[in-house]
Write a structure and sequence with these properties.
CATH architecture: 3-Layer(aba) Sandwich
Shape: globular
Number of domains: 1
Helix content: 25-40%
Bound molecules: S-adenosylmethionine
CATH class: Alpha Beta
Radius of gyration: 17 Å
Order of helices and strands: HEHEHEHEHEHEHHE
Distance between the termini: 41 Å
Strand content: 15-25%
CATH topology: Rossmann fold
């Protein structure tokens, strides 16, 4: 089970190519048990493209459906879930160690408003119905700083268009990075799409972590070439 997510076709569509690690050091017994027994209880069903209304997966009193893409160790996701018990949050992450860390936090916290997909965000987002998400977080995605690797970055015009499709009018998108080139190119891609408005009015709006942000493990590592940049957008 400690393997990379399958690259088999999904819903008749080929899966995207994933770069980076899908597995690291061996899981502990407890982590493996969480992957084997707990993860299936939080799984998101495979559906036809565009068929899934994410809010329908949560209890009826759920106010909004949010998505965190590439949650890493899950600190932000678990933190937001605890702060927002009336929201249903879906996390998608291919790296099994990260999934196991999140599951540990969810079990210890008795969290009931999170669902998890181990896999590629692009495959999951393709399943969502039009205008079905209230909020999306993409926090410190893999930067791929070398020029020849930029094509591997998640935030590209095609994916921005998919996000625009699945987000409701008024839904919020937060992108954060500590790589200056990725910040600039992501801002350009999102603005070029034409369906998002950037919320920043002054430099502090992108230089300072937003009030509702939960610090992530990758953010703390400070591996980038600039201070963290937070770009908050609203879907028009
Ligand atoms: C640099 S880490 C940041 C993790 C976390 N957001 C944080 O700030 O600590 C980027 C994460 O994105 C995940 N990732 C990479 N490609 C992805 C994809 N196509 N879909 C979903 N997650 C992806 C990686 O496995 C990794 O955990």
């Amino acid at each position: 089970m400690n393997d990379a997510p399958s690259s088999q076709p999904q819903n008749g569509q080929p899966r995207h190519r994933l770069y980076g690690r899908a597995a690291g050091k061996p899981l502990s017994k407890r982590q493996q048990a969480l992957i084997d027994d707990f993860l299936p209880t939080l799984a998101i069903p495979e559906t036809a493209p565009g068929a899934l209304a994410p809010i329908s997966l949560f209890k009826p009193s759920t106010r909004e459906a949010w998505l965190e893409i590439g949650f890493g160790g899950g600190e932000h996701l678990a933190g937001q879930a605890a702060r927002n018990p009336d929201v249903g949050i879906i996390g998608v992450e291919p790296f099994i160690d990260g999934v196991a860390k999140l599951l540990t936090a969810l079990e210890e916290g008795g969290t009931t408003n999170v669902l998890v997909r181990r896999g590629d965000a692009r495959d999951l987002v393709a399943q969502f119905a039009d205008a079905s998400l209230d909020r999306v977080f993409i926090l410190f995605p893999d930067p791929w700083p070398k020029t020849r690797h930029r094509k591997r970055r998640l935030v590209q015009p095609d994916f921005v268009a998919e996000l625009a499709r699945v987000m409701k009018p008024g839904a919020k998108l937060r992108f954060a990075t500590d790589w200056a080139d990725y910040a600039n190119r992501a801002l350009e891609a999102v603005m070029r799409d034409g369906r998002f408005a950037w919320q920043a009015e002054r430099a502090d709006d992108w230089r300072k972590p937003p009030a509702d942000h939960v610090t992530t493990r990758y953010q703390e590592k400070r591996l980038g070439d600039c201070a963290p940049v937070f770009l908050d957008f609203i879907h028009r």
